[in-house]
Amino acid sequence: METASISHLVKYEDLNHHGTLFAGRMSEWMVEACFICAATAVKKPEDVVCVQVHGMSFIKPARRGDIIRVEAQLAYLGQKSLTVYGQVFANQAVEPYVTSFATFVTIDQQGRPYAHGLTLTPEYIQQNQDIHQKAKALRK
Q1: pLDDT at 61
Q2: Secondary structure class of 62 (helix, strand, coil)
Q3: Which residues contact 89 (CB under 8 A, 6 or more apart)?
C-alpha cells in the first residue's frame, strides 16, 4: 500500500521561543507527508482534500540542526475518505518524536465527495492492525 516519506532540516526560522521545532511548522510538514501518501494512493492529487487532523502527540522535541523524516502510511479507508498515520523521526532515531493521523476526502471538480474505490488488503490490515484500529476508532 501507499506510503510517503519527506525530510526537512530544522532551521532557525522553524523554531519556537523555546528553541525547539514550532508545532505549527511540524503540523505543516506532517499534513504535507500525509497528503502525499493519500494523493499517491488516489492517483489524482487534485481530488484530495484534508478534512481533519486528529491531533498530534509531541513525544520529544526536535531542535535546530536536526534532520527530521516524516513517514506516512494509509491506516484506514472509508468509502470516500482515507485516514493516514504519520510519524516523525529525527536524525537516526528509531522511536518517533511526533505521531498523528489525518483524514482526507476525494472530491470531484464541483467539490462533491466521491467514492475512491480503494481497499486495504486483509494482509495489510493484519500487519498494521494497531494503527488501523486507532484510525477506525478516531472516525466514530
Answers
A1: 96
A2: coil
A3: 68, 69, 71, 95, 96, 97
Provide the domain count of the chain: 1
pLDDT in tens, 12-51: 999 999 999 999 999 999 999 999 999 999 999 999 999 9
The rounded distance, in Å, linking the Cα atoms of 97 and 36 is 20
Supply the pTM of this predicted model.
0.95
**Whole domain around residue 48: which residue ranges?**
3-138
Residues 6+ apart with CB under 8 A from 66: 9, 10, 21, 90, 91
Collect the ranges in the chain with pLDDT lower than 50: none
Q: How far apart are CA 38 and CA 32, in angstroms?
A: 10
Q: Write the CATH number for 11.
A: 3.10.129.10
Cα distance between residue 140 and residue 138, in whole Å = 6
Q: Would you give the end-to-end CA distance of the chain in angstroms?
A: 24
